[in-house]
Automatic annotation (TrEMBL):
Superkingdom assignment: Bacteria
GO molecular function annotations of the record: DNA binding
UniProt keyword annotations, A-Z: DNA-binding
Organism: Phytomonospora endophytica
InterPro entries xrefs: Homeodomain-like_sf (IPR009057), HTH_TetR (IPR001647)
Residue ranges the UniProt entry marks as DNA-binding: 32-51
Name of the protein: AcrR family transcriptional regulator
Domain HTH tetR-type: 9-69
Length: 182
């Protein structure tokens, strides 16, 4: 019996999962879409048909990124309602540990400089994550901004290959010590 064909919804989910990893590394290029197509066993034109185009595929990857990050924050805030930022931060570091979330976000931010549709989606993603953190934690806007700034520092340090063992403050101290020893 021939293998059962996957539905378009399953193919979309497969493409987004692969696309997040590949676009994080290569950017939202046609070559990246070809690599996604190869990985999930379809043609590149089929990937474009699933989403309506390269930009729409990229936006679908950003939608999934937002959903994952929001879920992590909501679930981890519920674990420690007294001080949710600790568990939310741990969940975030675990989520971004493989470099995919940060890489995809940085690719989106770079593309946003020249594409208003992607810029609008990035703004909506950031607003959605900020709202999730505030709603889940009950924190003030200022506390949420500080938490978000710490998370951004983690992404930046990760992107430049800093050793995050021991946390971002230790990584910053090591970087400063390295710079001072030059």
């Amino acid at each position: 019996m021939p293998p059962k064909r996957r539905s378009a919804d399953h193919r979309r989910a497969d493409a987004v999962a692969a696309g997040m990893r590949i676009i994080a590394a290569l950017g939202p290029s046609t070559a990246a879409v070809q690599q996604v197509a190869d990985e999930i066993g379809v043609s590149q034109p089929y990937v474009f048909r699933l989403f309506g185009g390269k930009r729409e595929f990229f936006l679908a990857c950003l939608d999934e990124l937002e959903a994952r990050v929001r879920k992590v924050f909501a679930e981890n805030a519920a674990i420690a309602p007294g001080d949710p930022f600790i568990t939310m931060g741990e969940g975030f570091r675990e989520t971004v540990g493989d470099g995919v979330a940060g890489g995809l976000l940085f690719q989106a931010l770079a593309a946003a400089r020249h594409d208003e549709v992607i810029a609008a989606r990035c703004r909506a993603l950031i607003a959605g994550v900020l709202a999730e953190v505030q709603d889940s934690s009950g924190a003030t806007a200022e506390e949420v901004a500080d938490f978000f700034a710490s998370g951004t520092l983690v992404l930046v340090l990760q992107a430049v290959g800093a050793d995050l063992t021991g946390g971002s403050r230790e990584a910053v101290a090591r970087l400063r010590a390295t710079e001072e020893s030059r």
